[in-house]
């Protein structure tokens, strides 16, 4: 299972809020917090073939461009699954993840999965939960991060194998 | 091992983090914290740690100048007991789904019912309230009163023991009548409590709580093992992605708060400072640059590492790190769920706590005055301001360097791992070129 992980500037290890203008980019390795997800993925035979990143302000001002570039590049790299986040309760990153996830649904055949905390994102999750696979996770500093990453990886396995998502969604998603 | 830790710690952390009483104590103290920081500044100006400061300003402004500043600092430091009661009443009321302002006022009145309002001066008795009852020594009493009074109030509200006004009565009037019976119940209860204590050997609720609870808890909390445990748990929880201090403060914050206020009171009154293990001790002499003492980690990343990823992150995160903001590396390095960094991330704060505890006990650095500095105050400056002595800065510098030495081998291990990945990827160019699509 070949996975691409999409992160904002903070999770990619490219700085904090002050670097929200970071343009889109990518590396062919697990960058920043993607390293944790990559380790969990490797336990189920998965690998991270690239990390795409984008500052949240840059995304806000160039959402069409970022959506187009990310979907086309993921297709070109033949990814089996795209993971967005974990986004914690960062509202800007959570919004970016939902919109990108929806763009993948429309423009690409690669399935997506994301992990987002309900705090600060209630409305967003209500809006997108029917269309997207959004795994429950704790807010920044909350309990249960390790479990939610395990669930994220479990979800990756199911979607990459075109498995039935009913039980997974009922157990771990919004 | 990691799984075992998680199995033990997670349920406990969740329970502590979600406990409504502990959460309200935390939230309540946070309401007062800005007031303490602001008034601490006035105290600091009135007692700035520079020789000749007092005589310089006395010559310029007259001998009353310091009193102008202490009037501001005393407005909070002498009333922390009653302020805690109000603030915790507010937070607990809010967390229990009540009108928070009603809950806060009910807690305040209950506190006043139990506060002696006469003072004996020689053979005469005059109507007055001693600040002893409403200051730091009254904090635990304030906590108990806030929780009990709001819980009683809620008991009546939940049973609809209210006077219903007809439609058309303005909401403010209607709400006021809603509060009548619940407030009456609370006042009646504390009226009886007041009588009960006045006929007991304790004389006041203050004496009872202070003697049986506050003093013993202070004694237990004001010890090296207590703060070692505090910082160990806080760091371990961070490694699992949990904001450790939020959980540990649930238990320790009332104790640290009382100990800090004791020191502030003594400092304001130019008495000997009593305690070592205060909030400033924890904030200023155990971690530098945020949880895990990550300023040391950042310096290693910035100066020594060769992996592009680590160096870049070190460069970006060092400035925020000096001011105590470590979010970029907590999630970006990452520290969270990273077994390599976990070891120094736990060891460094614990070791700093141990060393600082010993150094303060030996009197090599004067005890913290209790002045609360903004949490973004950089180390070296904070050590001096918190103790009034340059030796505080030296201790901080020593511990930052020690932290660098402890972090070094672990960060190098991570650096090697990333360097290998980068070298392997170099053959096929690491960057993804989005111009290709």
Q: What report would you give on this structure?
A:
Helices cover 44% and strands 17% of the residues of chain A. By secondary structure, chain A is an alpha/beta fold. Chain A has one domain (2-172): Rossmann fold (3-Layer(aba) Sandwich). Chain A is globular. The two termini of chain A are 24 Å apart. A two-stranded antiparallel sheet of chain B has the order 1-2. In chain B, 71% of the residues lie in helices and 2% in strands. Chain B contains 20 helices and two strands. Chains A and B meet through β2, α3 and α6 of A and α1, α16, α17 and α20 of B.
Helix fraction of chain A by DSSP (H/I, runs of at least 4): 40-55%
Query: Which regions of chain B contain 5 or more consecutive residues with pLDDT less than 50?
Result: none
Profile the largest sheet of chain A: 6 strands, mixed
**Helical fraction of chain B:** over 70%
CATH top level assignment of chain A:
Alpha Beta
Number of DSSP helical runs of chain B? 20
Binned strand content of chain A: 15-25%
What would you report as the Rg of chain B, rounded to the nearest angstrom?
26 Å
Number of domains as seen in the coordinates of chain A: 1
**Low-pLDDT stretches of chain A:** none
Whole-number mean pLDDT of chain B = 90
Name the chain pair with the biggest interface and residue counts per chain.
A-B, 38 and 39 residues
SS content category of chain B: mainly alpha
Q: What is the approximate shape of chain A? A: globular
Number of strands of chain A: 6
Write the H/E string of chain B, N to C.
HHHHHHEEHHHHHHHHHHHHHH
**Total number of beta strands of chain B:** 2
Shape estimate of chain B = globular
Summing up helix and strand content along with how strands pair, one would put the structural category of chain A as: alpha/beta
Number of helices of chain A: 7
Subcellular location (chain B): Cell membrane
GO molecular function, one term (chain B): protein-N(PI)-phosphohistidine-sugar phosphotransferase activity
InterPro entries (chain B): PTS_EIIC, PTS_EIIC_3, PTS_IIC_cello, PTS_Sugar-EIIC/EIIB
Organism (chain B): Pediococcus stilesii
């Amino acid at each position: 299972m070949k996975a691409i992980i999409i992160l904002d500037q903070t999770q990619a290890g490219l700085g904090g809020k002050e670097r929200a203008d970071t343009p889109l980019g990518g590396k062919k390795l697990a960058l920043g917090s993607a390293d944790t997800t990559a380790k969990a993925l490797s336990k189920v035979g998965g690998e991270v073939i690239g990390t795409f990143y984008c500052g949240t302000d840059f995304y806000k001002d160039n959402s069409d461009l970022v959506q187009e570039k990310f979907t086309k590049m993921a297709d070109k790299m033949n990814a089996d699954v795209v993971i967005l986040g974990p986004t914690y309760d960062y509202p800007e990153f959570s919004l970016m993840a939902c919109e990108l996830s929806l763009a993948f649904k429309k423009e690409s055949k690669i399935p997506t999965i994301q992990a987002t905390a309900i705090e600060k994102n209630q409305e967003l999750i209500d809006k997108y939960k029917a269309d997207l696979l959004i795994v429950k996770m704790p807010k920044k500093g909350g309990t249960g991060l390790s479990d939610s990453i395990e669930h994220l990886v479990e979800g990756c396995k199911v979607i990459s194998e075109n498995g039935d998502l009913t039980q997974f969604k009922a157990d771990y998603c919004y | 091992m990691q799984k075992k830790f998680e199995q033990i710690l997670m349920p406990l952390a969740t329970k502590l983090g979600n406990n409504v009483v502990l959460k309200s104590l935390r939230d309540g103290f946070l309401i007062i914290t800005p007031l303490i920081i602001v008034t601490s500044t006035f105290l600091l100006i009135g007692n700035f740690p520079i020789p000749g400061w007092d005589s310089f300003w006395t010559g310029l402004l007259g001998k009353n100048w310091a009193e102008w500043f202490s009037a501001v600092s005393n407005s909070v430091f002498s009333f922390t007991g009653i302020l805690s009661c109000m603030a915790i009443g507010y937070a607990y009321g809010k967390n229990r789904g009540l009108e928070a302002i009603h809950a806060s006022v009910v807690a305040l009145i209950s506190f006043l019912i139990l506060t002696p309002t006469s003072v004996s001066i020689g053979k005469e008795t005059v109507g007055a309230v001693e600040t002893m009852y409403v200051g730091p020594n009254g904090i635990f009493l304030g906590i108990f009163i806030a929780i009990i009074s709001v819980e009683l109030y809620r008991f009546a509200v939940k049973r609809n023991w209210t006077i219903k006004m007809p439609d058309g009565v303005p909401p403010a009037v209607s709400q006021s009548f809603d509060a009548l019976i619940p407030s009456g119940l609370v006042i009646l209860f504390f009226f009886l409590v007041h009588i009960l204590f006045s006929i007991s050997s304790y004389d006041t609720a203050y004496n009872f709580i202070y003697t049986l609870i506050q003093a013993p808890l202070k004694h237990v909390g004001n010890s090296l093992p207590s703060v070692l445990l505090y910082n160990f748990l806080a760091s371990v929880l961070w490694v699992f992605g949990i904001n450790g201090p939020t959980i540990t403060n649930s238990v320790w914050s009332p104790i640290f708060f009382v100990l800090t206020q004791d020191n502030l009171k003594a400092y304001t009154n130019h008495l000997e400072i009593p305690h070592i293990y205060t909030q400033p001790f924890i904030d200023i002499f155990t971690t530098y640059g945020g949880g895990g003492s990550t300023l040391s980690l950042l310096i290693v990343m910035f100066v020594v590492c060769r992996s592009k990823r680590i160096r870049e992150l070190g460069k970006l995160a060092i400035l925020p790190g000096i001011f105590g903001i470590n979010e970029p590396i907590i999630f970006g390095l990452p520290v969270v769920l990273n077994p390599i960094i976990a070891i120094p991330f736990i060891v460094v704060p614990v070791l700093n706590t141990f060393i600082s505890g010993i150094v303060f006990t030996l009197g090599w650095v004067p005890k913290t005055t209790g002045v609360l500095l903004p949490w973004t105050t950089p180390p070296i400056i904070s050590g001096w301001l918190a103790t009034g002595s340059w030796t505080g800065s030296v201790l901080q510098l020593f511990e930052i360097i020690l932290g660098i030495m402890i972090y070094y081998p672990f960060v190098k291990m991570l650096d090697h791992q990333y360097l290998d990945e980068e070298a392997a990827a170099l053959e096929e160019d690491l960057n993804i070129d989005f111009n290709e699509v």
